[in-house]
């Protein structure tokens, strides 16, 4: 990033550089969640460590988004533990959670942009709502985040409805990057996009993670996208993580659930042919 863009971020507090490069930032243990009589999460164990991006895979309805919402505190789990940077978050009070969540950036599947707010206010929404910085600083931070995802000053005052689907996704990603988060949660960042736009979003995600030295949990159905972004993968089935390993090793698994998933995606034959 050029020096002028770095200055735009100087109005925010820098993160502590004295960190363990291999530490576990998110530790999930025994996480359970049911809705009425339907068990969605039956005891999920998963670690997110510095230096790694994890693609969370599984069939539709397997509970991937529910898991993310439980980790973020948007849905209360029935049982289990979620520790972020060593702090237990299950049952955490709102004030303490808000402070801890400053380490976290989130991109929701539908983008969750506010139709009535211009792009820059969408990107800087958390800063503006918490009154952590002035509006001028918030606008500069938004401009820097938009530049990181390949969007220029020409979109900053537009409304979301004036943007293409791909540009809206990039605005949502820019919002997730505000504040230089250490942890990113991305729920289907390329859902509904064509292969060209998917590649653009993947490149933006990968470049942002490298620049921030952040870790990420990426929910995706796109195995090509998973390989571009994530060095590790975890497969959620029947409420549990049934496989975890290097992303490229997924095709070597003999688990029936994974083989069925690969065949349904058409990736099984393509991978063998390649």
Question: Would you mind describing this structure in some detail?
Answer:
By secondary structure, the protein is an alpha/beta fold. It has a single domain (21-273), classed as P-loop containing nucleotide triphosphate hydrolases (Rossmann fold). It is 37% helix and 23% strand. It has eleven helices and ten strands. The chain has helices at 3-8, 64-72, 94-100, 119-123, 125-130, 135-148, 165-177, 195-212, 223-229, 256-265, 267-273, and strands at 24-35, 38-49, 53-57, 79-84, 87-88, 104-107, 183-187, 215-219, 232-237, 240-246. The chain has a six-stranded mixed β-sheet with strand order 6-7-8-3-9-10, with helices on both faces. Strands 2-1-4-5 form a four-stranded antiparallel β-sheet, with helices on one face. Helix 6 packs across helix 7. The longest helix has 18 residues, at 195-212. The radius of gyration is 19 Å and the shape is globular. Mean pLDDT is 86; it is low at 1-10.
| Multimeric state | single chain
Q: Domain count, please report it.
A: 1
Number of helices: 11
Uncertain residue ranges: 1-10
* CATH class identity: Alpha Beta
Helix content: 25-40%
Describe the biggest sheet? Answer: 6 strands, mixed
Query: How would you write the strand order of the largest sheet?
Result: 6-7-8-3-9-10
Over all CA atoms, what is the radius of gyration? 19 Å
The share of residues in extended strands comes to 15-25%
How far do the termini sit from each other? 35 Å
Name of the CATH homologous superfamily = P-loop containing nucleotide triphosphate hydrolases
SS-derived structural category: alpha/beta
């Amino acid at each position: 990033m050029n020096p002028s863009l770095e200055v735009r971020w100087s109005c925010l507090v820098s993160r502590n550089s004295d960190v363990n490069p291999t530490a576990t930032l998110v530790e999930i243990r025994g996480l359970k969640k049911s809705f009425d009589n339907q068990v969605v999460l039956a005891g999920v164990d998963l670690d997110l460590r510095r230096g790694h991006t994890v693609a969370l895979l599984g069939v539709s309805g397997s509970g991937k988004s529910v898991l993310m919402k439980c980790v973020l505190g948007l849905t209360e789990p029935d049982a289990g533990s979620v520790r972020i940077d060593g702090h237990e978050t299950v049952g955490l009070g709102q004030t303490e959670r808000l402070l801890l969540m400053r380490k976290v950036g989130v991109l929701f599947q539908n983008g969750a942009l506010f139709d009535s707010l211009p792009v820059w206010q969408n990107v800087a929404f958390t800063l503006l709502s918490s009154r952590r910085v002035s509006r001028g600083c918030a606008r500069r931070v938004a401009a820097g985040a938009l530049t990181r995802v390949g969007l220029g000053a020409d979109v900053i005052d537009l409304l979301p409805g004036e943007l293409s689907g791909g540009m809206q996704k990039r605005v949502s990603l820019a919002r997730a990057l505000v504040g230089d988060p250490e942890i990113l949660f991305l729920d289907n960042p390329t859902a509904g996009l064509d292969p060209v736009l998917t590649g653009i979003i993947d490149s933006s995600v990968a470049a942002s993670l490298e620049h921030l030295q952040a870790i990420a949990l990426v929910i995706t159905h796109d195995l090509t996208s998973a390989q571009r972004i994530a060095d590790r993968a975890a497969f959620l089935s029947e409420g549990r993580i049934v496989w975890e390993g290097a992303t490229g090793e997924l095709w070597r698994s003999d688990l029936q659930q994974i083989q069925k998933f690969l065949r349904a995606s058409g990736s099984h034959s393509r991978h063998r042919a390649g």
